[in-house]
């Protein structure tokens, strides 16, 4: 019985070995087996997981001790992960027994595929690398691109995630940031000037209006004292005088509409307090034949009276 069990175990082991080394196909002289594919998949998954862990460690632990902002740390971490993935995958191929020189044909086929079917993917990937190196945008920036406005949350290999003020995540292809005009509110610094126009009646006291607007700006906590807010008379409009309040702010960068709303509400309250008129659009109606119009009105009124009777 003992020897029979050993024979059965040996036979099973031989079957497993035959299955593991069973030739599936040949790639330029290299025989691909199930064992080779299994090792390739397991090591690749392990490489992706370890590179992600290493990136988080580099960004949130190592580089966090420096004076770099989060955008710079994320860029360095992402580029480092790409390098680790590339070198690690080459080492894995050599480890499982795939000669890299045999991949020339496959590389040529992949190149043709990129040239035709994967053109957009390659374009977005290269655009992502350009973004990480040149850093026209970075994580945390307030940007506008392709009618999308929000905060940059993540810059990936193919796309960038932008979160709007409605807490909606919008995925924008990286090529948009290279080929189109991008407004980056916080590229240089977080201090931005806001312009709030307001039109008042031509009979309003000019000094009172300008002083009131400056007072409103100074009372708002989001408005900076330096640079100081200013008021300009920008237009002598048909319906009145148009002023423009120019105020600088840094804390309202990510919610510009909230600052404008608060200032507009304060303007309405202040002007009502000082009886400053906010004019409505006015139109003058000129009647060429007033007598004929009067006759028509009288005749219509007469008809209405007869009908009522």
3D architecture notes:
By secondary structure, the chain is an alpha+beta fold. It folds into 3 domains: 17-117, no CATH class; 137-184, SH3 type barrels; 192-273, Alpha-Beta Plaits. The N and C termini lie far apart (125 Å). The chain has helices spanning 2-20, 34-62, 70-96, 104-116, 119-134, 176-179, 206-219, 256-273, 290-308, and strands at 25-27, 30-32, 142-145, 148-155, 159-163, 169-173, 183-184, 192-200, 230-236, 241-249. β5 and β6 form a beta hairpin.
Q: How many individual β-strands? A: 10
Q: Can you count the helices?
A: 9
Supply the number of structural domains: 3
Q: Give Rg in angstroms.
A: 36 Å
- How would a textbook summarize the main sheet? 5 strands, antiparallel
For the biggest β-sheet, the strand order reads 6-5-4-3-7
Structural class: alpha+beta
Helical fraction: 40-55%
Beta strand %: 15-25%
**End-to-end gap:** 125 Å
Which of globular, elongated, flat, extended, rod-shaped describes the shape?
elongated
Which series of helices and strands comes N to C? HEEHHHHEEEEHEEHEEHH
Which whole number gives the mean pLDDT?
80
Question: Which regions have little confidence, pLDDT < 50, spanning 5+ residues?
Answer: 2-6, 304-309
Write the layout of secondary structure elements.
Blueprint: H1 2-20, E1 25-27, E2 30-32, H2 34-62, H3 70-96, H4 104-116, H5 119-134, E3 142-145, E4 148-155, E5 159-163, E6 169-173, H6 176-179, E7 183-184, E8 192-200, H7 206-219, E9 230-236, E10 241-249, H8 256-273, H9 290-308
Antiparallel strand pairs: 1-2, 3-4, 3-7, 4-5, 5-6, 8-10, 9-10
Helix pairs in contact: 2-3, 4-5, 7-8
